[in-house]
């Protein structure tokens, strides 16, 4: 919770990922290990430019509750997503009948790029 509060204070800015990771590691108690997966559903990492990856606050709790609206916001933020990256943002909308995969199959389309599976908007811009 405390980690989330620190990040929440800076909602619109993107930070250098290496700098953020270093600062974050220095702020936790000794013996505690930080890992980006701990920020799943709270922050987005943009590594489209490998030489200068950034991280920004992107909380699941701030997204629309309607599946189509949520996916619209997600695909506006990032053109394509891996299942691992998008799941924390879709999982809260899943039901007993429609799990994350079923929701994505229904409301998004899949791409296979270099053997990796991605989800993107069902209808192009």
Helix segment tally: 5
The SSE string, one letter per element, is HEHEEHEHHEE
Count the beta strands. Answer: 6
Main sheet overview? 3 strands, antiparallel
Radius of gyration: 16 Å
Strand order of the largest sheet: 1-3-2
**Could you say which structural class the secondary elements and strand pairing correspond to?**
alpha+beta
How widely separated are the two ends?
A: 37 Å
Helix residue percentage: 25-40%
Shape descriptor reads globular
The overall pLDDT average reads 88
Low-confidence regions: 1-11
Portion in strands: 15-25%
Architecture blueprint of SSEs:
Layout: H1 2-8, E1 14-16, H2 17-27, E2 43-46, E3 54-57, H3 67-77, E4 80-81, H4 83-90, H5 100-107, E5 108-113, E6 116-121
Antiparallel strand pairs: 1-3, 2-3, 4-6, 5-6
